Amino acid sequence: MEKNKYGKELDVAVKVVQMACSLCKTVQKGLISGSFNQVKSKNDDSPVTVADWSVQATVSWMLCEYFGSESVSIIAEEDVQALSEPDSEGLLGMVVTTVNEALAKAPIYGLNGPGKALMAPQVLEAISRCNSSGGPVGKHWVLDPVDGTLGFVRGDQYAIALALIDDGKVVIGILGCPNYPLEKESLNYHDNGLHKFSSSSTSEVGCVIYTSKGSGEAWMQPLIHGNEGLQGPNCAKLIKVSAIDDPALATFCESVEGANTNHSFTAGLANGVGLRNKPLRVHSMVKYAAIARGDAEIYMKFARGGYKEKIWDHAAGVLIVQEAGGVVTDAGGRPLNFSRGMYLEGLDRGIVACSGVKLHEKIIGAVYASWDSSNL
Ligand SMILES: [Mg+2]
Questions:
Q1: Is residue 297 part of an annotated ligand binding site?
Q2: Ligand 1 centroid vs 316 CA: distance in angstroms?
Q3: pLDDT for res 149
Q4: Number of helices and strands (H, E) in the chain?
Q5: Which of 128, 161, 166, 290 is deepest in the core (most CB within 10 A)?
Q6: CA max distance for the chain
Q7: What residues are neighbours of ligand 1 (ion), with CB under 5 Å?
Q8: Catalytic residues
């Protein structure tokens, strides 16, 4: 790939994700303090908040501004249905305010905002235009405005995931991780049955991780705060996967919630492969960030029967892990296919992301050995 083929897209997208991180931090603070207490439930019972819609509107507006509203194709998680219900006026008002507050800060991130505040119909339009169905031809942006909304409402880990697909291939990936500490040393492991982490109070928290396909590099920026503006490329650090290839020393990540994944199957698999460390259970695509940055070595996800993985839950994270030196495939060892619309169609059983080929081969082998005895 030409090195800067997607240079403009990457530049704008990283800045937009920085903006979105700041927006989310503000809303999360409000949620925890009780001033932003509107959490809605979607059809699948997953929560959705002011932040989900506000990030989607903000990112959509910015991408249209920079790449032309006529030609931009965006596939994103949220729609305006719940926002348009008769009892949602207050909620919509909060979204409009939140979006305008975020857009007003655009210059801090080196972006141009709108000349004047957006009205409710413009905000709804920005959200609802993200209804592309993707596919194998052309450029499509893929957005999960808040990945891990449950972690978000709990004050825990969540991510903003933005990727660009060109002719069916993921070509850039950005993960905003507003609560993920910059240094591994500042991750505190709590061993209360779960093996979770939280950040220590002294460390700087929050980062944006990004890459472009074929670069062989993944980068991490700290979050931009207040008026200090963009801090220049010196502030971005190269990240790399872990060099550990001995299963006895490796750590694997999995989802906190069991609803869309199967913890007992991964536990059996981990045992079979000789993993000794307890799993690191993390909300959201921060799991991919953890692999890319060398904080853990393996991420496995095996959905329960019937659950179909959506591309916005994986596109950015998969590319970041790959460019940071890792390997990501389905459980049959095949690459994930992002060219067939909003779902990862044809996915063989689950997703296995590893820091290196040796661990990956062992996991895939173990899947074959233990699959028949499982009840997935
Ligand atoms: Mg989401």
A1: no
A2: 13
A3: 87
A4: 9, 16
A5: 161
A6: 61
A7: 77, 144, 146-147
A8: 52, 149
Q: Does residue 316 contact residue 173 with C-beta atoms inside 8 Å?
A: yes
The annotation status of 144 as a binding-site residue, yes or no, is yes
- How far is ligand 1, taken at its centre, from the CA of residue 150, in Å? 9
Write down the pLDDT at residue 330: 96
Q: Cα(336)–Cα(311) distance, rounded to whole angstroms?
A: 9
Would you say domain 247-371 falls under CATH 1.10.3720.10?
Answer: no
Q: 20 CA to middle of ligand 1, Å? A: 13
In angstroms, what is the span from residue 287 Cα to ligand 1's centroid?
15
What are the extents of the domains in the chain?
247-371
Looking at residue 45, its pLDDT comes to 66
Confidence (pLDDT) at 185? 65
User: Do the annotations mark residue 147 as ligand-binding?
Assistant: yes
Mean pLDDT per segment of 10 residues, for the chain of length 376 residues?
79 97 92 69 76 97 95 95 87 95 95 96 97 96 95 91 98 96 68 43 80 97 74 76 96 79 81 88 93 95 85 98 98 96 94 97 89 62
- R_g of the chain, CA atoms, integer Å: 20
Closest of 154, 165, 166 to residue 283, by C-alpha: 154
Question: pLDDT tens digits for 125-184?
Answer: 999 999 999 999 999 999 999 999 888 988 889 999 999 999 999 999 999 999 998 887
11 a known binding residue? Answer: no
DSSP output for 42-54: -TTS-EEEHHHHH
Q: Per this entry, what is the length of the chain?
A: 376
Surface-to-core class of residue 339, CB atoms within 10 Å of its CB (0-12 exposed, 13-18 middle, 19+ buried): middle
Copy the structure tokens of residue 175: 């993960």
